[in-house]
## 1
Amino acid sequence: MVTREDQVLLSLEQALSARISSEEVKRWLRDYAIPFHELMAYYRCAMMKVETKFRILNENISLASDSNHIESIKTRLKSPMGIIDKMIRYGQPITVNGIEESLHDVAGVRVICSFVSDIYLLAEALLAQDDVKLIERKDYIMNPKQSGYRSLHLIIETPIYLQDKKKYMKVEVQLRTLAMDTWASLEHKIRYKKSHEALSEEADRELMECAEICAELDMRMERVMSSSSRMKEEGR
Ligand code: GTP
Ligand code: MG
């Protein structure tokens, strides 16, 4: 039977083989295979913890407002290939400690919210927790990327409790609305379909305009939601 550990090691070996000599791969696996596997397990624990934090917040906030604030949550662990490529891009030696220190997005949690206001509500509630430390915040909703990309990105650090120790782990959290997520998924597909060739200026402009239409949709949905909840409160 192929275990999860075998699969991780196989894809790690493939990632390394494409980039360093077979002698170096052997040495790397001898020195780092076990610590790498452990580190990935710690990142999985940290993702589980952060996902649970959002599920608890959703339950709790929904009690007061009688509606869900989160549409869905996705978690992903960066692949060995993605990790090695990024370390090479950063010009860092590929060691397990180096990966932990240099990369902030090995563990990713994406929270798809109903409305823009839910994004800020959930982010503030998460950051107010005792065991969550903010490392970096990038607000691509207030300041969209040149591509038109919108989301709120947080790099946080939180402890996981292991059998005999407490370990602080970094997690990248991306909060976005359904409209922002739809745009980002399709834009990614369109942009990377052409295997990293640049898109035409016209296609870039179209994508940017689509992002603005999504932002307009979010704003109008938020307005409808606020005015209908005001009417409900006033008993109209
Ligand atoms: P990298 O992590 O190397 O990408 O650089 P960075 O740390 O400066 O990244 P940033 O925080 O700006 O964005 C990281 C992630 O956000 C990416 O891995 C994507 O998931 C998402 N993202 C950022 N920009 C875009 C974009 O223009 N289009 C799409 N579809 N996703 C984006
Ligand atoms: Mg990043």
## 2
Amino acid sequence: MRATDAFRAAFGADPRTVWHAPGRVNLIGEHTDYNDGFVLPFAVPWGVTAAVSPRDDSTIRLLSLQSPGDPVVISNHEESRGWTRYVVGVLAMLGDRVRGADIAIDGDIPPGAGLSSSAALEVAVASALDDLYDLGMTPMERALLSQRAENDFVGMPCGIMDQAASALSAEGHALFLDCRSLGSRNIPLDLAAHGMTILIIDTRAHHEHAGGEYAKRRAECESAARKLGVAALRDVTDLAGALDLLQGDERKRTMHIVTENHRVEALVGLLRAGAITEIGALLNASHLSLRDQYEVSSPELDLAVEASLRGGARGARMTGGGFGGSAIALVADDRLESVKESVSSAYAERGWQAPRFLPATPSAGARRIS
Ligand code: GAF
């Protein structure tokens, strides 16, 4: 295994534990997590492997096969930079429950595709440390710790979806998560049995200011909830009445969050009824709402969705935070080539960089692999 080999070469011994944590795509329920709402992500087949041994001192020695060079040595958490912050943040959140560690990281999540490589990195490291120090955390506690590392150490005000998907997903299933109660259920997502594929369309386009826009959306939702006198937009039961009390962007954001929560529940209902082929309309409605009400789509994402529908997809939507990254399309296997061709030629016509296509197979969550 590459992470183990790299660990041995750099640190001169075998790692005490090796964990793998996957990235995710979100089937539906976008930006609902930090509004105490519902999400339905699933783990993808790609992820992050962390080979880890504890140390007797508080030093962290860290290497990544994706950032060649000597191990980074960190003796003070505040020294960490770039990708190392996601790892050091997890150690920082564990505080005096752990000491230092030697860590080798390997990952195969397509970079920049919006498939949550940072959550996978956090969860892989959190799981390995929990295991090493016998901390007795549940998978959800590992996810929450990882989210805290991202919120409080890295400074990204994300919700719980990505870390929970990485920590809790089960092969062949999507993860239905209530982001308030943190109750979750694995929902069977047997695409092959229905001759369907969920195709990831990586637009390979990234827009500046995505982080700032994310924080702005979150603040708008919190402000709208305050004006409506509810703890979170999840609590809005009378949408028409709520919209009468709001204006401008806050009105639009509320419209998206309230309707998106209903779409998640409806989609779960269809999956439970074995009606995967019927979920397309909900995916399309989610995309339009993210584009027009939440305003987090991009020209590249919109074109990926439109062109895949023209090519015969049953439904399509942007997935993840938005402003670039990936879209997903639900496609009958006999239409896959026509969907890819439709999207590729639409991008080529505009002179845009060719998108990348990846089939998304619902995969297992974080696990010890050695
Ligand atoms: C990003 C965040 F990290 C998630 O918490 C979630 O809010 C998502 O955007 C939007 O649904 O992936």
